[in-house]
Structure formats: C-alpha cells, structure tokens
Amino acid sequence: MVYSVCVSTQMVNQIVDSARSILNKFIPDIYIYTDHMKDINSGKSPGFGLSLVAETTNGTLLSAELASNPQCQGAVALPRDPGRDGAKLLLEEIYRVGCVDSTNQSLVLLLMTFGQQDISKVLLGPLSPYMIEFLWHLKNLFQVMFKMETEPCGEEPKGGDKVFTSLISARPSSDAVIT
C-alpha cells in the first residue's frame, strides 16, 4: 500500500514504480495498491509513504514500512526514495526470515514473558540491536531469561542464521515489587 496526503498523485506513482523496479527482479506477481487523500479531509501536513507485506508459502507475513520526513524536519525525501528503500527493507526481512519479522521480535518476547514458561518457544531471524537491548530490559525489569540457540542456515543458503528462543526462568510472583 502506498499512501499520500496533500501531495501530487504523481508522487504515489513514482513510489510504486521504484518499489516495483526492485521487487520485480525476484517475482513478477506483485500488487501495490495506492491511496491518495486531498482537500479538507487530509489535514494540513503533506507526506507520503508505503507499507509492504510479503507472505511466505507457509503463511508467515513479513513487513516493511517507510514514510517521508515531516515537513521542515530532516532531509527532504524524493518520492522514489521510500519506494526503493522500502523494497530493500522488505528484501532484508525476507532474508532474515524467522517466524516473526524484526519489527515485532520484541512484542513476541514480551508476550512470552507474561505467558506460561513451558510452552513459550519461537524461531526468530538474527536479532536486531533493538532486540538485544530489549532483552536486557526484560531481564532487569521482570527477572526473566531466555535460552537462545543459534541454528545455522545449513548447506543451502536460505537467509541468515536463525535463533531458537525459549523462556527458561519465570517472572517473579505477582506479590513482588519492582523497584
């Protein structure tokens, strides 16, 4: 989905074209929808962006999202930049493929923290720097630890190494006070 607000519809078409120029090299069956909003309903802040979602053969959804910088903040983004960069981010997610994309790794481990210890297991792609920092926060706040085993991608390259993660130490009781 490519969206734009208070800008020319030409920008939406340029984003779609730049994303397709990269993704069509891998698979021609790509659907990118557009949404353009203008006039009074769109507000006063112009901008554009895209959200790309890929589905694997076993039903796993991988996503990447980019948006233009707010007006007068940071470098001005040309319309082809989010399309190109978003497509590259999606390809990076496909390369890293686990059962959860890198954006949602922390959410899954947080839910595992509050779930039952014996049944919480997940296969992740390589851990992002944010995820590593988040693990430290979980350990400090909830006194939980995770067992992580690296599973190499094997002889046939299918992306990065995978990390099999399971909860090994339970959270403190509900009577405990976190200071």
TrEMBL record:
GO terms for molecular function: RNA endonuclease activity. It comes from Cricetulus griseus. SUPFAM superfamilies: EPT/RTPC-like. GO terms for biological process: endonucleolytic cleavage of tricistronic rRNA transcript (SSU-rRNA, 5.8S rRNA, LSU-rRNA). One of its GO terms (cellular component) is nucleolus. Residues 2-94 form the RNA 3'-terminal phosphate cyclase insert domain. This is RNA 3'-terminal phosphate cyclase-like protein. Pfam families: RTC_insert (PF05189).
